[in-house]
Design a protein that fits this description.
The complex is a heterodimer of chains A (316) and B (334). With 316 residues, chain A is of the alpha/beta class. Helix content of chain A is 28%, strand content 24%. In chain B, helix 3 packs across helix 4, helix 3 runs parallel beside helix 6 and helix 6 runs parallel beside helix 7. Classes of the chains: A alpha/beta (316), B alpha/beta (334). At the A-B interface, helix 6, helix 7 and helix 8 of A face helix 7, helix 8, helix 9 and helix 10 of B.
Chain lengths: 316, 334
């Protein structure tokens, strides 16, 4: 096991306001595993990524819980200790990576930066290593001296992924890395990420709002709603047998590509505001299978079948 | 070749919009050394009464430009637009333009950018009603209420005095739809109306649009990059690539039996867990051609796995392969 998140609570506070964006989240990531986390905007998935990587800045805070990464509790490390681990042992690929690159620096210098912050290597070795990285992500090494504006969106994304892999991390956290790309390019990059994982053996936490993408590519899938993980299971099982009514609703929200055209129905209503205290199950107001208990008692997150976790009163 | 063949032959429905050989170039050079982006190249299609035509393509394929030309936000470089069989002139007086826009309205992609943050919902919906002088005096309030309720913003009263920042993305897009429908248009150009919304909200908006189509007798040009969404919404689908229409046909046929290599690629790239959880591997070059200096032959040939010599030399015609199904590819030309 490479990462264990334990009853993590995080969010934002200012004055008397509190936004409880991550609520009692627990999960584990095995070595080489591809974990997908799907949820709508505002469900706390990016806050979760920031909390794990120690990048949550005020007014954001981790309230309680622990994040064990290779035996160390990241939630209790100092900034400097986390900085030393970040990029070397785990790295992050952000949403809209295209804007992550500095427009006035050459591509290679930006990759060098990340490497030299952690290890001492001479220029030649640095260049040789970066060439290898470029080859890994299928970008021609003639672009080493290019500036970001000379590259297409897909290429920039590849460079950012190359940079995240530059120090051979054990875990890569990807926060909607392909959202801004075209369908075809998106599919190709995902395919490449998966191949790299198999080749290099790192684990991935892949965060996105696009469930249909994840079902096909991840090993395990966790569904987030209103700051909580409401269901987690191996992808194929989650797709074949969704247990939580929210997951079921999400699955029915995607028109299938093939088959006869027929009317589908989404999930009525909208998610609760995380700035207000939620009593009972956060999905109760939209749930078609609501019971009296749902309004008052928050359902526990339990393992219903082996490897299949769900937080819903329907399953006990 | 008569343009009439681009309609669906089986149905004898009334044609609302007809576009023939629409071209739009943007000058990105300067006055004495012009350089043109070939954004839309000889695009022809028609939309029947009550019909939804899905226009599918990647970003940069010219689908939004085409819609903006039809909405008269851009002037076409050449080509012809006909509304109810009448030619729409390139230059129009304000009065004539107003009359055109009463029939043709647009829904924009980004509900966070398309509503003025300084105005209340009441004002935003009342503007088209006033500009087009559709209602008088006191009726306006009840008309706004009716429009909001039609777009499932219920109770309408509670939304009237809200500013856009108080609304969720889905609610904003409903305001955008209500605003477009205020003038009772015949044709609505919907430019990726769901792409900025959350997945659980998307389907609601699509369903709302389909319901309103039935109720108000609308036609849509539904622009999207999502093939599955286009299939859900549209009667016919047109596939656009690098400014050109590559394939056009009935929805089910485009999805089940795509002919053009680009359509096949799009279908392969789309997630379809209902078929298999381990999708086949895509192998393709990913660069869309430079539209300032587009390839001489077929615009897809640099990425096409079936490309032959002729593909790099000549542009294939959009040819009929079966009733209502057209494709621009040498593989199918006789």
């Amino acid at each position: 096991m490479i990462l264990r998140v334990n009853e993590l609570n995080a969010g934002y506070t200012w004055g008397d306001n509190l936004v409880h964006a991550v609520n009692d989240v627990s999960f584990e990531v095995e070595k080489g595993e591809f974990l997908g986390i799907a949820g709508e905007s505002g469900c706390g998935k990016s806050t979760l990524a920031f909390s794990i990587t120690g990048l949550l800045r005020p007014p954001g805070h981790i309230f309680s819980g622990s994040v064990f990464f290779m035996g160390k509790d990241l939630a209790n490390l100092s900034k400097e200790e986390i900085r030393r681990l970040r990029w070397k042992d785990f790295s992050i690929v952000f949403q809209s990576s295209m804007n992550v690159l500095n427009p006035v620096l050459r591509i290679k210098d930006q990759i060098f930066d990340g490497i030299t912050a952690h290890v001492n290597v001479d220029k030649e070795e640095l260049l040789a290593h970066t060439k290898k990285l470029f080859k890994l992500v299928n970008v021609s090494s003639e672009f080493l001296d290019a500036y970001p504006h000379q590259l297409s969106g897909g290429m920039k994304q590849r460079i950012v992924i190359a940079s995240a892999l530059s120090l051979n991390p054990k875990l890569v956290i990807m926060d909607e890395p392909t959202t801004a790309l075209d369908v075809v390019v998106q599919r190709i990059i995902l395919q490449e990420i998966d191949e790299l994982r198999r080749k290099l053996g790192f684990s991935i936490i892949f965060i996105t709002h696009d469930l249909s993408l994840l079902v096909e590519i991840s090993d395990t899938l966790a569904i987030m709603y209103a700051g909580r993980i409401v269901e987690k299971a191996p992808s194929a099982e989650l797709y074949a047998k969704p247990m939580h009514p929210y997951t079921e609703g999400l699955m029915n929200s995607f028109p299938p590509l093939s088959g006869k055209r027929k009317r589908l129905h989404g999930i009525p209503g909208h998610p609760p505001k995380l700035s207000e205290e939620i009593k009972g199950c956060p999905f109760a107001t939209r749930c078609p299978k609501k019971m009296p208990i749902c309004e008052n008692i928050s359902p526990p997150y339990i393992e219903v079948e082996k490897g299949h976790f769900v937080a819903c009163h329907l399953y006990k | 070749m008569s343009h009439a063949i681009y309609t669906n032959e089986g149905d004898k429905m009334k044609t609302v919009l007809e576009v023939r050989d629409l071209v739009k170039y943007f000058n990105v050079g300067h006055l004495f050394k012009p350089k043109y982006v070939h954004a839309v190249e000889k695009v022809s299609f028609s939309i029947g009464s009550g019909e939804v035509l899905g226009l599918v393509g990647e970003s940069g394929s010219g689908k939004t430009t085409a819609a903006r030309v039809i909405a008269k936000l851009y002037e076409p470089t050449s080509g012809e637009i006909k509304l109810f069989g009448e030619i729409v002139p390139t230059k129009m007086s304000r009065k004539r333009l107003l009359k055109y826009r009463k029939n043709v309205q647009m829904i924009f992609q980004d509900p966070f950018a398309s509503l003025n943050p300084l105005h209340k919902v009441r004002y935003m919906i009342s503007r088209p009603l006033k500009i087009h002088r559709l209602v008088k005096g006191k009726e306006i309030e009840s008309k706004i209420g009716y429009l909001l309720e039609e777009c499932e913003l219920i109770p309408a009263k509670s939304f009237l005095d809200k500013y856009p920042y108080e609304l969720s993305g889905g609610e904003r897009q409903r305001i955008g739809i209500a605003r477009a429908l205020a003038v009772k248009p015949k044709l609505v150009l919907a430019d990726e109306p769901t792409s900025m919304l959350d997945v659980s909200i998307r389907l609601d908006i699509m369903n709302l649009m389909l319901d309103l189509k039935e109720k108000e007798g609308l036609s849509y040009l539904y622009i999207t990059h999502d093939l599955a969404g286009a299939h859900y919404m549209s009667d016919r689908i047109a596939i656009m690539y690098a400014g050109m229409l590559m394939e056009l046909g009935p929805s089910d046929e485009i999805i089940e039996h795509p002919l053009h290599p680009y359509t096949k690629l799009l279908k392969k790239a789309a997630p379809k867990p209902e078929e298999s959880l381990r999708p086949e591997r895509l192998v393709v070059g990913e660069e869309i051609p430079d539209l300032v200096d587009p390839p001489k032959g077929c615009r897809f040939y640099p990425r096409c796995p079936y490309a032959t010599k002729i593909c790099s030399e000549e542009v294939p015609n959009l040819e009929k392969v079966s009733s209502g199904h057209f494709v621009r590819c040498f593989l199918y030309s006789k």
